[in-house]
Amino acid sequence: MATMNPSSAQVSVAKFAIGDIVRHRLFPFRGVVFDVDPQFANTEDWYQAIPEGIRPRKDQPFYHLLAENDDGSYLAYVSEQNLLPDDSGRPVGHPQASVLFGAFKDGHYTLRPRISN
Fold it and tell me: pTM for this structure?
């Protein structure tokens, strides 16, 4: 997954792929990647709500996660700089994981085949 940032000549390559299990480097949650944006693609309000001291750069991949923590499951949007591989070997308990993904093997999910009408 490589894309050109229109404002520079740098190539942004995603470190994680769809189906990878990751964990946040600062906060106690983990999740499975279900989509990747080559650079920030959320609202400016969302971005400005992040405290300035921990606000990530926009010019990096951002990941959509089916996330979970001790309080439950939710969707998360996280910059690459804030993610680490999850080496627990455990599947994610998010209820939507079984909708998007099939097999879980060797710490990675495989996408279910698309059903089209």
Answer: 0.86
